[in-house]
Design brief:
Elements (H helix, E strand, L loop, with lengths): L1 E6 L3 H12 L4 E7 L2 H11 L3 E4 L8 H11 L5 E5 L4 H10 L3 E4 L4 H12 L7 H13 L11 H11 L4 H8 L3 H15 L4 H10 L5
Parallel strand pairs: 1-2, 1-3, 3-4, 4-5
GO cellular component, one term: cytoplasm
GO biological process, one term: phosphorelay signal transduction system
Protein name: DNA-binding response regulator
Length: 210
């Protein structure tokens, strides 16, 4: 049996969806909650297989409830079931740790199918949600590893690319040799390379130096 906790502040919604889900041979509603706070408490106490989470509730919304559950129980599988497709709802819910995102306009059998798929480790998203995510990804600028470097680290990387030793870099920048070594270590870690040679190759490959 797939044990399900259902959190929604609309009693009629809970009654209707729960009635259908309870009729399924492989799904059991173990608890219901009318707000985010009780949902968090029940989730951490009962550890259900799936949590159906409404987004807009009076005291604690579903985003905050999802965040608190995931903080205490990272393995929790939470399906958002809501009427909202606004960006300010979709992205925060997914970033908080929700596994799947469904609309209340979905048929009960579709929600049951989403429960089974999420239980098996899949992520189920409404087509409109998938479209929003793809659009945001296309709009997001490409990030490079060297974007993580501080101005000082970038300066030292360019000096490394010029073939300067740690001592020469320390003398040129008027900083301690030990400080240079710390910066070099940070640079290698951020660029995900093993040594100075690979760091130089990275710098040339990404046109950081001529």
């Amino acid at each position: 049996m797939i044990r399900v906790l259902f959190a929604d502040d609309h009693e009629m919604v809970r009654i209707g969806v729960s009635a259908y889900l309870s009729s399924q041979p492989d799904i059991e509603i173990v608890a219901e909650a009318s707000d985010g706070g009780p949902a968090v408490d029940l989730a951490l106490e009962l550890r259900p297989d799936i949590i159906l989470m409404d987004l807009v509730m009076k005291e604690m919304d579903g985003i905050e409830a999802t965040r608190r559950i995931i903080e205490e129980w990272p393995e929790a599988k939470i399906i958002i079931v809501t009427s909202f497709l606004d960006d300010e709802k979709v992205y925060p819910a997914l970033e908080a740790g929700a596994t799947s995102y469904m609309l209340k306009t979905s048929k009960a059998e579709e929600i049951a199918k989403a429960i089974r798929s999420t239980y098996e480790g899949q992520s189920v998203l409404e087509p409109q949600v998938t479209g929003k995510i793809m659009t945001k990804m296309r709009e997001k600028p490409i990030e490079h590893l060297h974007d993580q470097l501080t101005d000082r680290e970038m300066e030292i990387l360019l000096l490394i690319a010029q073939g300067k030793s740690n001592q020469e870099i320390a003398d040129e920048l008027f900083i301690a040799l030990k400080t240079v070594k710390v910066h070099v270590s940070n640079i290698l870690g951020k660029l995900e390379v093993q040594d100075r040679t690979q760091a130089v190759i990275y710098a040339f490959k990404h046109n950081l130096v001529e």
